[in-house]
Design goal:
Elements: H1 5-26, H2 30-51, H3 54-75, H4 78-88, E1 94-96, H5 102-115, H6 117-125, H7 132-156, E2 158-162, E3 167-171, E4 177-180, E5 186-190, H8 195-198, E6 208-210, E7 218-223, E8 226-230, H9 235-243, H10 266-280, H11 283-294, H12 299-315, H13 317-324, E9 328-329, H14 333-346, E10 352-356, E11 363-366, E12 374-378, H15 379-382, H16 386-401, H17 404-429, H18 437-471, H19 477-503, H20 521-529, H21 536-545, H22 552-564
Parallel strand pairs: 6-8, 10-12
Antiparallel strand pairs: 1-2, 2-3, 3-4, 5-7, 7-8, 9-10, 11-12
Helix pairs in contact: 1-2, 1-3, 2-3, 3-7, 5-7, 6-7, 6-11, 10-13, 11-12, 14-16, 16-18, 16-19, 17-18, 18-19, 19-21
Length: about 575
């Protein structure tokens, strides 16, 4: 049975209190804060397993964790916020007045309600004993945190500008920023807020920071790795003031943005809603299951419908993702020529290259087969040297050629079915679950930990194959592929470090400066065993020093290093 609303609220409150203890103490003593959080979490864990049945305990713990994560996400920017408030007390700044309209935030919540409507209806009217209700409640709670952050940002964001230091300050408890305007790359004005681009559920690959508070003209500020959107009063005045710090070409007319309900935007709106309901949320599937439940459809038929619907979504994934990313076929003649050459070498000449607006350096292959696939590059990636772009295209070409999107979904689903099968057999064949609570606890947690390790295994294998087989499609071979990855890593690192300068409080920058450097042993465990890509330092080193084309040798090399690098204190072998 799903926990009652009161039980869920209590569980969430416990998670919030656990983090609150650490949050309040962390201002004075970091070690004491960590000790308090860990100790209180262990006490809560022990009490739950002592007080409740084995299966109920997992639900309580899941919601306690959700409460902790929700409060953590609402406080992670607090240090930067306090730091900037203290700094602003000692300098002279000019307040940048913002235009606030309630209709702006109401529309955001309206779209969120539409996205999760079917899931909420399933919670209310679905079968009482359905375990799906647990996952729906957990998902909605996570999604609700995003909208809470959005509302508080709308209500309390404040913008200031210092002429003396030429610095723009954005005061928000969740996204406080300090931007030196010397870093400002472009300043543009849009005629209105583009909701379909800015809404957190409607985007993919986004690097947008949405501080818009109305539908009036939008000031769009492009910094390294991030684009900021503001609805300020006297838009043109502030554009002129900030534009003096950039070398960008001045644009006199605002960029025209059509309202979301315009007939030319209807297809885009429907596509983004569908994307949000099937990818960002679970309403599409829960809505289908709820309809079948009301029609009293047999369980085997419900599962069959859900399976075919999943296959259908996979089949149209390239089209849906292109709408979600606002991807358009690239007009860059140099990129088109390079793509034709690379894709011809790969044996997939009909695949087209799209581009999507994003400051991330990234490429993406979508679609379940060669005939319905596309390769999308971000606008930041399009600006890289053409030799680097060719390496990225060759890597993505392998994903298309080998149908990695489809196989990734198949391997993922296979593991989930096996895991559900094991849990079903345990529940059906163990007569006294409470008497075997401890071994069952370790079995379930082992399966939960094994899942990301399994995902990482097949995903990294695909990535290594894409690097080395893709190199065979390039004139420069493995050397060019290594140089492409190096350039990509350096640009990503530069923007990441800049972004940390803008958003991280003093003392919070704990990341290594270059992804081409070998991490400490505990980070290497995560990189090799949990993440979808092998660490970049290893990918580049193997391509440069060994130059293996795809085959048994490089596969064996990766498999050995995956484990040796994870648990070794020694230097990477040559």
């Amino acid at each position: 049975m799903l926990l009652s609303l009161i039980e869920i609220t209590i569980s969430l409150s416990i998670g919030i209190i656990i983090h609150l203890l650490g949050f309040l103490t962390r201002r004075f003593n970091e070690k004491l804060a960590n000790t308090l959080e860990i100790t209180s979490a262990l006490v809560a864990l022990g009490v739950v397993f002592y007080q409740y049945t084995f299966l109920d305990s997992f639900m309580y713990i899941a919601f306690i964790s959700s409460g902790w994560l929700a409060f953590f996400s609402l406080t992670e920017g607090e240090a930067k916020y306090r730091e900037l408030k203290e700094e602003l007390r000692s300098i002279h700044v000019e307040n940048v007045k913002l235009n606030r309209k309630l209709s702006r935030i109401f529309l955001d919540f309206g779209f969120a309600a539409v996205v999760f409507a079917s899931a909420i209806l399933f919670l209310i009217f679905g079968p009482e004993t359905s375990p799906l209700k647990f996952f729906i409640a957990y998902t909605i709670l996570s999604a609700a945190t995003v909208m809470v952050k959005r509302f508080i940002t709308y209500a309390h964001v404040k913008v200031c500008y210092s002429k003396d230091t030429e610095t723009l300050y954005i005061l928000s408890r969740f996204n406080a920023r300090k931007f030196p305007t010397k870093d400002l790359q472009t300043v543009k004005v849009e005629s209105s807020a583009d909701i379909l681009k800015l809404h957190p559920y409607f985007s993919l690959f986004t690097t947008n920071s949405d501080f818009t508070t109305s539908f009036q003209q939008v000031l769009r500020l492009h910094f390294p790795g991030e684009t900021v959107y503001l609805t300020v009063n006297e838009t043109e005045t502030w554009r002129t003031t900030l534009e003096n710090n950039t070398l960008s070409e001045k644009v006199e007319k605002p960029l025209s943005i059509l309202p979301f309900y315009h007939k030319k935007n209807i297809k885009r709106l429907l596509g983004k809603l569908y994307f949000a309901m099937t990818v960002k949320g679970i309403s599409a599937y829960t809505g289908l299951l709820l309809l079948l439940y009301f029609l009293k459809t047999p369980m085997w038929l419900m599962i069959t419908f859900a399976l075919f619907y999943w296959i259908f979504n996979l089949y149209i994934s390239d089209r849906i993702l292109s709408i979600a990313m606002d991807a358009k076929e690239t007009k860059n003649s140099e990129v088109i020529a390079s793509a034709k050459k690379v894709f011809k070498n790969a044996g997939i000449p009909d695949v087209k290259v799209y581009e999507t607006e994003s400051d991330q350096y990234n490429g993406l292959a979508t679609g379940m087969n060669i005939g319905r696939s596309m390769v999308t590059l971000t606008t930041a990636t399009i600006k890289l040297p053409i030799e680097t772009i060719e390496g990225i295209l060759a890597h993505e070409a392998v994903h298309v050629k080998k149908r990695d999107v489809m196989w990734g979904q198949i391997w993922n689903t296979a593991f989930l079915l096996i895991m559900l099968g094991i849990l079903y057999l345990l529940v059906e064949n163990i007569s006294d679950l409470e008497a075997n609570a401890i071994p069952l606890f370790f079995v379930i947690w082992f399966l939960m930990i094994l899942y990301p390790v399994y995902q990482s295994f097949y995903s990294q294998l695909m990535e290594v194959r894409a690097d080395h087989l893709g190199a065979s499609f390039l004139k420069g071979g493995t050397v060019q592929m290594a140089e492409s990855l190096t350039t990509l890593a350096n640009r990503q690192d530069d923007d990441s470090l800049k972004n940390l300068e803008y958003s991280a409080a003093k003392g919070e920058n704990r990341v290594k400066e270059s992804s081409l450097d070998r991490s400490s042993w505990w980070l290497r465990i995560l990189e090799f065993q949990m993440l979808p890509h092998p660490p970049m330092y290893w990918r580049v080193k193997v391509l440069t020093e060994h130059g293996y084309s795809w085959g048994r040798t490089i596969c064996k090399h990766w498999f050995i290093d995956r484990h040796k690098e994870s648990f070794s204190f020694k230097k990477l072998r040559n």
